[in-house]
Design goal:
alpha+beta, NADH Oxidase, 2 domains, 5-stranded antiparallel β-sheet, 8 helices, about 15% strand, disordered N terminus
Length: about 230
């Protein structure tokens, strides 16, 4: 009987240790994931001092996008990555288009912002293929009105995933929306399918200046919890 009690004590001790280790691991994983999300910030002072190889950045973006969910697993988002000359050409197009659209007294400030984007290392263009949405609408007419909404949500998740992945690789980034005024000329310049609709532009590069302290989210205003 004494021997059985001792064996029970040993098993209980080992099980307790195992549970403690698992609990600690879960807490550490939770903290690590939260820290990864917190690294994603809007950083506007970006440069070209990036040590990561172009193919590594390309793979990183591809993996981030591949992990994102999509309605019926039909991914309608399309990604265009711009480096070097293509990056510069895109922002030249944006600048010249804005020159045509805004008053001259306003353009100077806009031009500075665009030049700041051009000074970065690269740009990720997030597109949505409207032909995929239209096909889904025909296949499942009952949910036709919802597919564009779900596609926007899916695109937003892809943008967030890529942004976070770049941040955790030590790169800064910020999101811009110069669409739809540049859509047609950019489509023609890069010879992209006409069904691709530009949704956002993520500018990235080396962090030349750290962002200011972020204002905390008001938890009590934004969240409600029910048991």
């Amino acid at each position: 009987m004494t021997l059985l009690n001792k064996i029970g004590q040993v098993l209980t001790t080992d099980l307790t240790k195992d549970l403690k280790f698992k609990k600690t691991d879960i807490t550490q994983d939770k903290q690590s994931f939260a820290q990864q999300l917190q690294r994603r910030r809007s950083i506007y002072s970006l440069g070209k001092k990036v040590a990561i190889q172009l193919d590594e950045i390309e793979s990183l973006i591809q993996e981030a996008v591949r992990s994102c969910p999509a309605p019926l697993n039909t991914h309608s988002f399309r990604i265009v990555i711009l480096f070097n000359k293509s990056h510069q050409q895109f922002w030249y197009i944006v600048k010249e288009k804005q020159r045509q659209l805004v008053p001259s007294q306003v353009f100077a400030g806009i031009a500075m912002k665009i030049e700041q984007c051009a000074a970065a290392f690269g740009t990720v263009l997030f597109y949505e293929d409207s032909s995929v949405i239209q096909r889904l609408q025909k296949q499942i007419p009952l949910h036709a009105e919802y597919f564009p909404i779900w596609a926007e949500q899916s695109s937003g998740m892809a943008q967030y995933a890529v942004w976070t992945a770049l941040a955790n690789s030590g790169l800064g980034a910020h999101l811009q929306h110069y669409n739809p005024v540049v859509d047609q000329i950019v489509t023609q310049h890069f010879e992209l399918p006409a069904s691709w609709q530009l949704k956002a532009q993520l500018v990235f590069g080396s962090i030349e200046e750290e962002p200011k302290e972020k204002t905390d989210l008001n938890i009590h205003t934004c969240f409600k919890v029910f048991n």
